[in-house]
Amino acid sequence: MSGLLEPLIAAAAPEQRIALQSLKLPGARDERWRYSSLRALNQRTFKHQPIVTAQHPDSFTSTTASLSPRIVFVDGHYDAAQSDIAALGDAITLNPSASSADAPQQWPFAIAAAACSATLDIRMAASTASPIHLVSITTAMAQDAIVQQSLRIELAANVEALVVHHRLGDADSNALANHWRALVLADGAKLHWLETADEGERASIVIGTRAVLGRSSHLDIGEVATGAALYRHDIDITLAGAHSQLAIRGCTMVAKRRHADIHIDVRHRARDTQADIVWRGIADQRGHSIFTGQLTVEAGADGADAALSNKNLLLSRQAEVDTRPILEIHADEVKAAHGATVGRLDEQALFYLRSRGIDEAEARRILQVAFARAPLLQIAPAELRDIALAALARSLPEDVT
Amino acid sequence: MLKIDNLHVRVAGKDILKGLSLEVKSGEVHAIMGPNGAGKSTLGYALAGREGYDVTQGTVTFNGQDLLALAPEARAASGVFLAFQYPVEIPGVNNTYFLRAAYNAQRKFRGEPEFDSMAFLKLVREKLKVLHLKDELLNRAVNEGFSGGEKKRNEIFQMAVLEPTLAILDETDSGLDIDALKLVAEGVNRLRSPERSFLVITHYQRLLDYIVPDIVHVLSDGRIVQSGGKDLALKLEDEGYAWIKARKLAEQAAFAS
After folding, report:
1. Whole-angstrom Cα distance, residue A119 to residue A107?
2. For an interface test with A, which of B90, B96, B144 has the most A Cβ atoms less than 10 Å from its Cβ?
3. Which of A302, B39, B141, B146 would bridge B150 by S-S if both were Cys, CB 3.0 to 4.6 A apart?
4. Closest residue in A to B73 (Cα–Cα)
C-alpha cells in the first residue's frame, strides 16, 4: 500500500476500510497520471482529519460574506452556519448526509472522498437567476492534513442554474484537498459551472468532476486554473441524452513551481450530441501545464459534433507544457476537429507595445492576459464571465519576466 | 533635435547601415528614399530600438541625449514614434485599452499625472474626429482584421494621440490606394508643427506629392548618397534608382583608377 492511501481512507467507516485498502492509487506507470507524480505525497506523513472548526479564519470572512447565496465548506465539511441560501427559497434543497455518490472505478481519489466525508446532496427544482456560490475553504488548521469533500448536484428537468465554485486556501497550507462531485442534468436542464481558486503554492489539490447529461441538456464549464504543488482536475462527461451539449472554456496560468494537470474525458453516447472544448495554457518560470482532452464518439452516436482546441504559451526555459488531444470515433456520421499548439510570446507584438511606451514587463503582462482570456470571453453568462476574468487578473504574478 | 552620425547597423550578422549620417531640425520633414534593400526600414527599427538591430558604430543624439542607450519604451516616452510598415495584429487587446496604457506609461515616465478612462476617452474622441475615423475603431482589437488602409490610419491615429516630437513613417504609403493615401497624408499634415519633426521613409515619390518634404535624402547600400530639396524626389521618379547605381559605379571606377 502506498504511503498516501492509508491517511486518504483513514476517515472511512471501519466496515468500508477493508475494501478501500485494495484501492490502487496511480503509480509511475499509469499513463493517465504520467505528468502528475504522487511520489512527494506518498512520502509525506499526513495527520488525520483536521478538527472541524466553526470559526472562519479572518482572511476568508470578507470574501465569503460578499458572496450570496452561498454554500460553504470548511476543510471539507459542509458548514450550515456560514452558508446562506435563504434567497433561493424552495428552488434548492440540501441534504448534508446523503448516501455517497457513486464514484467511477478508475478514480480512487473520488472513491476515497465519497467514503470519507458525508456527501452533500444539492437538488435544484427551479431555475435561479443569479449565481449560487459554493465556497470551499482550506484553513491553516488543515496543515499536513487531507481534506475531503463529496458533493452531488442534480438539476431537475428544464432547470437552469449558475454555480461558481471558489476554492480558497490558506496561503501557507500544504494540505491535500480531495474534491469529488457528481453532476446530474435531467432532460432540458442547463448548468453553467465556473471553477476558480485562490490557493497557495504548497497546496495539493485533486478534483474529480463527473457529469451525466440528459436529453437536450446543456453543461458549460469554465475554469481558471492557477495550479499548486500538485493540481489535478479530472473532468468526465457523458453525453447520455440525444441533443445534449457540452462547452468547456478554460485557461491555465502557472508560474513559480506550480503544476496544473487538466484531464478531460468526454463520451458521446447518444445521437446529435455536441462537445466544444477551448482551453489555453501559459507556463512561466518553472511552471508545468498539462492538458489532456479525449473525445470519444461511441458506436451509434451519429450526428455527433466534437471540437477541441488547446493552445499554449511556453515562457521560460524551465517551464513545461504537455498537451494531448485525443479523438476516438466509432460512429459514421460525425463532425470532429482537434488541434493543439505550443508557442512563445510574439516578439513582434512585444516590440510593437514597447515602441508605444509600454515597459517590457507590462507589455508581457498585456499579451499574456490577452492570450489567456480568449476562451473566458466566450463564457456566456456575464456574471460568470466577469468572475473568471477577475480571477485571471489576480492569477498573474507581479514579477512576470 | 536628431543627429545621426556615422551609424553602422548589423542585422542577423549582415551589415545593413554602413555609416549613415543625418541631421533633422525641429519642425523639419525629411524624406528618406531608396531602392529595396538599401536599409530604409533598418534605420526606422534601429532608431526605435528593435532587438536584433545591433549598432556596431556611430551615435544617435536626440534632444541632447544618447538615444541608443535607451530601451524602446524610454525612446517612445522621450518623443520617438515609429509608424510601422506592417502594423502588428494583437488579438485580445482592445485598441482603447492599448492606447491608454501607452499614453499613461509615457506620462508616468515623464513624471506627469495619468489620465483616467473618462478623460482619455474625451481626448481620443477629439483625435478621431480630426482624422475622420469612426468610433468603432476604438472597440476593436489592435489591428486585428483591419484592412491595409485601416492599419496605416490606425498608426497615424496613435501618433495623433501620443504626440511625439519625432515621427518616423516607415513606408506608410505601401499597400494604400490613392484615396487612402490622401487620408493618411492629410492626417500627417495636420500634425505638422514647429515642434514636431518627421522622417518619411518611402520607396515611391508619390507620397511626397501629399506630404511635401523640406529635404530629400537618397539611401543606397547603407549610406546617404545624395541629399537635396523636394525636386530630388522628382528626379528619382524620372530616372529611377538605376541612376544612383550607375553614378556609384562611375565613382568606384574613378576611385580604382
Report:
1. 16
2. B90
3. B146
4. A357
- Domain range spanning residue A217? 5-345
Asked if B88 lies within 8 A of A349 by C-beta distance, the reply is yes
Query: ipTM of the predicted structure?
Result: 0.94
In a domain, A131, yes or no: yes
Amino acid A243 reads H
Cα(first)–Cα(last) distance of chain B, in Å?
41
Instruction: Please confirm whether the linkage preceding A108 is cis (ω < 30° from 0).
Output: no
Per the CB < 8 Å rule, is A352 touching B87? Answer: yes
What gap in Å lies between CA B35 and CA A223, rounded to an integer?
53
Whether residues B73 and A359 touch (CB distance < 8 A) is answered with: yes
Q: Which residues pair with B256 in a beta bridge?
A: none
A331 touches chain B (CB under 8 A): no
Query: Average pLDDT in the B187-195 region?
Result: 93
The packing angle between helices A347-354 and A360-376, to 10°, is 120
Residues paired with residue B218 on neighbouring β-strands, in sequence order: B33, B226
* Out of B82, B93, B99, closest to residue A355 by CB: B82
- 3-state class (DSSP) for residue A27: coil
Whether A301 maps to a domain, the answer reads: yes
B111 in A contact zone (CB under 8 Å): no
- Min Cα distance A348 → chain B (Å) is 7
Residue B83 sits at the chain A interface (C-beta within 8 Å): no
CA angle, A10 then A12 then A14, to 5°: 95
Question: Rounded CA gap, A388 and A164, in Å?
Answer: 10
Give CA–CA dist B108/B123, Å, rounded: 17
Contact A154/A123 with Cβ under 8 angstroms?
Answer: yes
Q: Which CATH architecture has domain B2-87+165-256?
A: 3-Layer(aba) Sandwich (3.40)
Nearest residue of B to residue A347 by CA position?
B51
Q: Do B92 and A355 count as a contact with CB atoms less than 8 A apart?
A: no
The pLDDT value given to residue A401: 35
* Bridge partners, residue A352, by sequence: none
Q: Are residues B93 and A357, on separate chains, in Cβ contact within 8 Å?
A: no
Give me the pLDDT at residue A117, please: 85
Total domain count, chain A: 1
Choose among B76, B89, B91: nearest Cβ to A357.
B76
Find out whether A236 and A263 touch, Cβ atoms under 8 Å: no
Confidence check: pLDDT of B251 > 80: no
Q: Is residue A196 part of a domain?
A: yes
Phi, psi of A141 (to 5 degrees): -60, -25
Evaluate whether residue A379 is within a structural domain.
no
Residues of A within 8 A of B91 (CB-CB) are 370, 374
The reply to whether residue B92 touches residue A370, judged by beta carbons under 8 angstroms, is yes
Contacts of A22 (CB under 8 A, 6+ apart): none
- Interatomic CA distance for residues A378 and A370, integer angstroms: 13
Are A356 and B162 within 8 A, CB to CB?
yes
